[in-house]
Amino acid sequence: MNCRSALVPTRPEHITPDWLSAFLGTRTPNIQVEELQVLDRTQGAATRLRVRVRYASGADGGLPEVLFIKTSLTRQMLVADPHMYLTEVYFYDRLRPAIDVETPAVYACEIDEETNRFAVVIEDVAQRSARFPTALSGLSGADLIPLMSTLAALHAANWGRSGLEARYPWLESATKGKTAEWWLSAEGRRNLELELQEDYKREAVDPGKHALDRMNEAFARLQTASDTGPRTVVHGDVHIANAYQLPNDFGLLDWQLMRIATWANDVSYPILTALDVEERRASERGLLRHYLAELTARGVQAPSWDDAWTSYRQQALWGVVTWTITPTAMYSRELLDGLIRRAVTAVDDLDTYAALGL
Prior knowledge:
By secondary structure, this protein is α+β, with helices and mostly antiparallel strands. It has two domains: 123 residues, Phosphorylase Kinase, domain 1 (2-Layer Sandwich); 225 residues, Aminoglycoside 3'-phosphotransferase, Chain: A, domain 2. Helices cover 42% and strands 16% of the residues. The chain has 14 helices and ten strands. The strands form three sheets. A five-stranded antiparallel sheet has the order 1-2-3-5-4. The protein has a three-stranded mixed sheet with strand order 6-10-7. Helix 10 crosses helix 11. The radius of gyration is 21 Å and the shape is globular. The protein starts with 16 loop residues before the first helix and ends with a helix.
């Protein structure tokens, strides 16, 4: 990618037809946007815009009239580690063309590597009648079968490949990099302790049964396990709100936390939190077997069932820690409470502490 930092917007007034023409022109020459209408705008860690455009006659480059823009239009970046945006831009620019997985088509992407200000313009998959489920959508195990296939395709592309850090030097691993270091730092542990002071989170986790010191020790062991072979390039944040459902497929969004790690977190995280407890209990073994079969069909020597089941069991703790540490301001209390309780129940059902040697 040739960095064209001047093309990266930083304020809402920068999003104009002329800017979008120049930005899309980095990949689609002779394109001309004459009008731009913002249909939806949401602001989280990044700014998300859904826009409708009108192109000059004969100057649409074959692009659709509805586009999705993800960027940062705030005076200050709203994340502690904006390196995550470099990871996402590099996914769309460098990895996506070589990986046969369902993700939005990308029409342009740029990053200012000095500031990590970024912008990506991608397909609005809602135009393909995509559904965007949440953990409260009542998904079935059968609904997640295509997602297991998508994950197997993603993982097979780099499965067990040597020199992954040299090949993808911008990617962190489960134990190396700012994110990994934060999770295991005194600050990360303090944040978990602070969030457990919320009454509903404390009730859901039940520290009398899941003592904080025990969780922290188990989480450190989980990170080590996630950095143990076979490793590959993983999405790194496959909760169900980062996926979209098509009639016969499941796609993945939000690639900021992509990393080099084992496969198991990507697979277990959606199963353990997207499904209610009874559905998860009834479906998890079948979903894991489907994932392993899909790896084999792609020429990968899949883990044995016993090894895969142990790795799956270990990962249940991830959901407990990550959703407990998530501030209530980011999601509804109902959603967070349900996610934490599902993950805690999975830890108990799967004897996760024993799987981690505790």
